[in-house]
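Listing S7. Sequence submitted for prediction.
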Amino acid sequence: MASILDEYEDSLSRSAALQPGCPSVGIPHSGYVNAQLEKDVPIFTKQRIDYTPSERITSLVVSCNQLCMSLGKDTLLRIDLGKANEPNQVELGRKDDAKVHKMFLDHTGSHLLIALSSTEVLYVNRNGQKVRPLARWKGQLVESVGWNKALGTESGTGPILVGTAHGQIFEAELSASEGGLFGPAPDLYFRPLYVLNEEGGPAPVCSLEAERGPDGRGFVIATTRQRLFQFIGRAAEGAEAQGFSGLFAAYTDHPPPFREFPSNLGYSELAFYTPKLRSAPRAFAWMMGDGVLYGALDCGRPDSLLSEERVWEYPEGVGPGASPPLAIVLTQFHFLLLLADRVEAVCTLTGQVVLRDHFLEKFGPLKHMVKDSSTGQLWAYTERAVFRYHVQREARDVWRTYLDMNRFDLAKEYCRDRPDCLDTVLAREADFCFRQRRYLESARCYALTQSYFEEIALKFLEAHQEEALAEFLQRKLTGLKPAERTQATLLTTWLTELYLSRLGALQGDPEALNLYRETRDRFRAFLSSPRHKEWLFASRAYPRAAGQSWGH
């Protein structure tokens, strides 16, 4: 067989010389990726927005390419980022000393809520200039809002959830319709649903996320300073089916399941990653006192949505009593933490910090960071400046990370369009299977690579794995082009010799009768192929193979 192997390698060399523009099956696997492919712009690139605010920035939110910024205590600046040169300024008309506490903008970019330190809430619609106080909300310091992504539209929010500083969760609904002087108020209703507690009693509802799974079940994740609660259930039938009352009613007699951590920042923040705006979220990250709890979200699980959970602990100098993180956003493969002087990006696959981006002191300390889920852009701001992060080709090196984890299917998925990288993955998978003595799987992978043919064939020969060698040769033969007749003839001849050798070793052994018959049937099927016959006649091996007496 060594002579056939030598002839095959010679034929590859001749073929390569005759067809310099065509890759051959003998191109060696180099083991590295062309460095030029990796010389791209960074995944996260920061851009300072060319804008100097007239007053200090107190809050900023972005959604659906709509940016809303509060300046001082009485000015709202709205910018459609598709028409950035046409900003719109609205005066809140406040005569008291109330300050903007937080702002919330829904997924359509249409409904803006402005929570004031005076426990009042203002509503501004994207298509209007009027600032409308929400009378039913008065007396509540709003900390979080869970928007209804399934039912919310530009004209109305559908049922939404509102979390307060005193642990209460309310259900509310807003309408953009202004009617007239005596028209309906924007806040259609505002009713209590639940109270979240920690050890000492009610605790601020720091984050609220409301989603609906593919099976129709609803779920709500709510966080306090130290706890993450999960409400899971199916909405009741009838008029109330679109609201959340039925979901929360199931937990009247017993508390929902929760995760708890001992350290306390005084606040926490929850971030989701959703591939498409109206699809179910895939991952979560919860910034709390002990670090960041992150993982996958599985809407199909009956009792807990959280899976593959991990905790990333804050490094020295970060956390309660040191330099506390101020905000978190989540992308497909990273979470980004905002600190007073920098942004740190952590890969969710490895837990490694991949970016530390420091900001100049002249801009002042960073205040918050938000993500526009519709565009994937990230926004950070100080009192005097606004910055935008573009996320570009975030998955470019994910294949390499999965490869190092021996998760070959995922590695192949993320380099499907990059032949050099795919070849690296297939070769590594083949080597892994060979070491695990999964020789047939190894042969199938090797056959798809551009590794040295001679090297792979000798590996199977030295391991006495003729069946795997035959699999490797068969798959190489199937992948040849019609013009590669010399290689096809040699591979067909080699396979014929392997079959004959195998049948000769099995013949006459009563205990191997079934295996003998299976091998014989495969060989007959191999010989019945017109292409194989043609190549065997060219090598003069067919008469010898056809003349064998195989018995029954």
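Caption to Listing S7: primary sequence and predicted structure tokens for the chain studied. Residues 112 and 205 are 19 Å apart (CA to CA). DSSP finds 13 helices and 30 strands in the chain.
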